[in-house]
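Database export, one record per block. Field names are fixed; values are copied verbatim from the stored entry.
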Amino acid sequence: MSAAMLCVIAITGFAAEREEKVIYHVSDSANATAALRNARNHLDQSPKAKIVFVTHGPGIDFLLEGAADKNGNPYEIAVQELAARKVEFRVCNNTLVSRKIDKSKLLPEASLVPSGVAEVARLQIHEGFAYIKP
């Protein structure tokens, strides 16, 4: 077997063992329904994938108590279902401060990060997450 073939086999084997880690970046809650559906479909295909939603600006709105989509369906149910599948939801504290929203208004499944955009960069650079912008 050639050295090139061994290298391909080694790289392929390494890639197969790597954990699938993905950021779903939501900066506009108008995209939240699609993002939640995408994450559900993603997990149906790759049940062990680690998915982290990172939200900021108007993208945090679907993670606020009482938030509903344009048809009046509460987001909370989908968020709870995905959280039960180990999906994480991170909210930008800078957004809360600038919009004067108390953190008590967040769904219990959401956690705060100092900056949403900094969190996206940190996860990509330091933790090897792939980036998806629904």
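Remark 1: The chain has a mean pLDDT of 91.
Remark 2: Helices lie at 3-17, 32-45, 75-84, 93-99, 116-127.
End of record.
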